[in-house]
Amino acid sequence: MDIFNNRELASVSLIILLLAWSSYKNRDVVNSLRLVLDALLQRAILTTLASLLVYISLIVYGLYEIEVWNIGQTKNTVLWFVFVGFAELINSTKIKEPKAHLQASLNAQIKLIVLVQFLVAFHSYSYIAELVLVAVLSFFACCSTYASYHSQHKQAKVVCDVLLSLIMLYLLIDSIYVIYSKPVEFFSLDTFRDFLVPILLSCALLPYTYCFYYYLAYERAFIKANIYTSSKSLQRYAKIQSFIAFKGRPELINSWFLYSCIPEFESKKTIRESIRCFKQQRESTA
User: Fold this and answer.
1) What is the extent of the structural domain holding 262?
2) pTM summary value
């Protein structure tokens, strides 16, 4: 199969054209893109991306060993890393309840819509047709999104959503017809890998995002220790004691740090006393 199908090439072409047009019309777009690039090149971001890359590489190696992944899945893996893996990493900073997030993520992988999306994406048209198709879909999707934030355009949102549904229905029916006409191309091991590998990668990413969530939660809580005292030993002691006292629950550790103040970090004894008082106050109000 080709490295990129016409739909992917059309999507990239439209993105490049849109960026070029926006940059020509408004120089602030270039400055904004430069700021985004500078942010991505921060050491913390690069370290996180490197750890994610190493983790996914180990997952891919494991899938390769059991003959699920092969070199033909390189494109799908790279696209998944850029558009799914990186996006999930960003979204993990907004997680409020990790268990609920894990459950929702797992449920998303087994929904019928995943199969429908795969079927729709299986068949692509000529490059020009795909340019028009992607442009029309993007236009209606943007109009629907814009209308959703403005109640006076509620009717326009309904119209856009209906048109999007009709177009997607046509694409689904056409893809099913193509599959029916050429079953050998669809019912193959490579096609099954195209469907399975992104799902397996998304499921394998969940433990990483779970650990990353807790890492960020502890970092947000523990950073207050650096504010309350400049002593490295007291900072380390406060982190260890709070972790033990609150059984590793980041929300309680953070609450205790918010409850505390600088005088309570003068010694190990005052830190222990602060934790004891906080636990007593919490138990009395429970």
Assistant:
1) 229-285
2) 0.75
